[in-house]
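Following up on my earlier thread - several people asked me to post the actual chain instead of describing it. Fair enough. Here it is, all 208 residues.
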Amino acid sequence: MQDGENVLVESAVSQVGEGAGNPQTDGGSAAEMPHKGKITVSMREYKYRDGADSQELLKKVQESLVGIYPGVLISVEKDANGPPAGAPINIELEGDDYNALINTAELMREFINSKNIEAIDELKIDVNKDKPAMQVVVDREKAGELGVSSGQVGQQLRNSIFGAKAGIFKEDGEDYDIYVRFNEANRYNTSAIFNEKIIFRDMASRSN
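Reply from S.P.:
Thanks for posting it. Predicted structure:
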């Protein structure tokens, strides 16, 4: 081992947005996750780590990050091999009142945490209450009359919220993707989102 070389870490890669999701729970590592970031650390072989156990290191990292960033959910996990799978234990709640479900889930989490049950850690609610979901149902008949497909409507909404790639910015040998989307004030404003114009080619009136 050379002087100054890290005896614990072989390499580390950070990702923000695309690829930052958990492939075990977010439907694939390439899914777009603009609100997430991920740091992947590869440990050196055990014989080079001066006896440091990876599980103990994981636990220390997890404990050191608790409460540092209020409102940010931080999860420290060992890389899981094999097909996507959820957490070892899941509790699912169903109901029609979104806010009531969130409140019930938070009460359940506080109750379980208060019992200090050994081996239960990183107990979390897998719903981002600051970014609630909204189901958009396209009037297919009306869209058909106008010559617009439901896919075009969906893509327009997606571009407005997540952005459409407009090019690449190069600086100091690094490439940075450029995305164009609504500003923050309008990005989650339903009035602005649902009243935007769609530019498309009307195939019915296109000349041969």
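The two ends are 70 Å apart (CA to CA). That should answer part of your original question.
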